[in-house]
Amino acid sequence: MVNFGKINLMELQLFNSLKKKVTKLNLQPGQTVNIYLCGPTVYDHIHIGNLRPIIIFDILHRLLVNLEIKVNYIQNITDIDDKIIIKSQKENKSEKEIGDYYTQSYFANLLRYNVLPPTFSPRVTEYISQIHEFIKNLLEKGVAYQKTGEVFFEVRKNQAYGKLSGQNLEKLKTGQEKKMGERKNSRDFVL
């Protein structure tokens, strides 16, 4: 921290995935930082692989709070998904029962591991109409298509696809769980 009279400036350096280099963030006490972390799909208990990004983001969250930075930390809960539907059928329970049970388990584990809770944890089921609208817009823009009762995102129609992750589309492995005949391209995925 550098002290310039009444103004305290903090410089935080983070790796910028888009620019592929370390980027400086100049922060001031009272400033608000927005953080989003993709949360769990709640069909089972979390494991160490699920916990790793949560711990990393918890460290960042705690650092910012310690530096007197306000944090809006959003972590979604995917409480409807094929895995949840399959689990509900196996256990003869509703998708909501499965989602609620494992959501409670997830937050109990955050508490157990002394992880700061997110500021807001929206559940996918609370945003179904917005998701439908978003998918409808993708269809209208021609970057998604419908086939055999599914809606697919057409990867090749998005020039920036893979840019953030640094993935080369030609080197990506394709999913083997779906028959190619359902998709225009093996890299297209269900929305």
UniProtKB/TrEMBL annotation:
InterPro entries: Cys-tRNA/MSH_ligase, Rossmann-like_a/b/a_fold, tRNA-synt_1_cat_dom
Key word Heme present: no
Domain of life: Eukaryota
A GO BP entry: cysteinyl-tRNA aminoacylation
Any single Pfam family the record assigns to this protein: tRNA-synt_1e
Gene3D superfamilies reported for this sequence: HUPs
SUPFAM superfamilies named among the record's database cross-references: Nucleotidylyl transferase (SSF52374)
GO CC terms: cytosol
Key words of the record: ATP-binding, Ligase, Nucleotide-binding
Residue ranges of domain tRNA synthetases class I catalytic in the record: 31-191
Gene Ontology terms for molecular function: ATP binding; cysteine-tRNA ligase activity
Protein name: 14548_t:CDS:1
